[in-house]
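Sample intake sheet
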Amino acid sequence: MKDDNVEVNSYKAWLLAARPKTLTGAAVPVMMGIACAVDSFGCEVRWVPAVLCVLFAFIMQVDANFVNDYFDFMKGADDEQRLGPKRACSQGWVTAGAMRMALVVTTAVACLVGLPLVYYGGWEMIMVGMACVVFCFLYTISLSYMGLGDVLVLVFFGIVPVCLTCWLVSPASPLFSIPLHVVVLSVACGLAIDTLLVVNNYRDIDNDRRTGKMTLIVRIGARGGLWLYLLLGVVACVLTVAVIACRNSWWALLVLLYLPFHVATAAEMRRIGRGAELNRVLGKTARNMFLYGLLSSAALLA
């Protein structure tokens, strides 16, 4: 169904399709990876791969948004009963053919931007890049329908970007020399970012159940989803404070400033319960997630 307020395939249409607000999810793990490297090596870090990691993460996030928009539209998951923010293909802002071409272009650009990382990290980076692209597509095409979306968030918005960014930005060292504290922080980061997926799936629980999209929230129910949302943020915060406290003492307490915002948002999510009003909680969760990244990075660098 076409929305007459947006011209088809216009600049505004593509901007809406790219969903720039979601770029915080790509920024936070890379930011934390860079902070981990600076914490360990100071001015000896390599800034060229840092910039490349940021660009690759941003482009892949846009690519993932395009993939999600196109394939959910083709599967009929983005119909008029969907409560979330409007999608470009389903609203007629972007034609299906143009979106298919955009998928090819953004995937190719992401690969070109990431290719120079081979110089800093070796040929293994090609395998990492391929995995990012493959799972970017598999998430929407099948894995999110199987309830594995949260696992992918933990891996590709936590462990992979935090650990590999830290390693690539650090002075040359073996791949398997990534410090344990960085690995733990990467897990914490993935948990914090997963709160965004949880509230998104919580809002869409009825529509997802109707269309056969068996997300984790569909499987554990709305009540379980509320508890999961709360616990993810709390566990992420506690892990981050514990790890940074072992390295920078009292500066770790900075991260605790995230907790009141997260708890308040969880309470608002519980109060609203159902409906499109949960989109407000989605926006606040994105804010909380970015706050978590800023506070964690600041505590590491203090």
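Comment: DSSP finds 13 helices and no strands in the chain. The first helix runs from residue 11 to 18.
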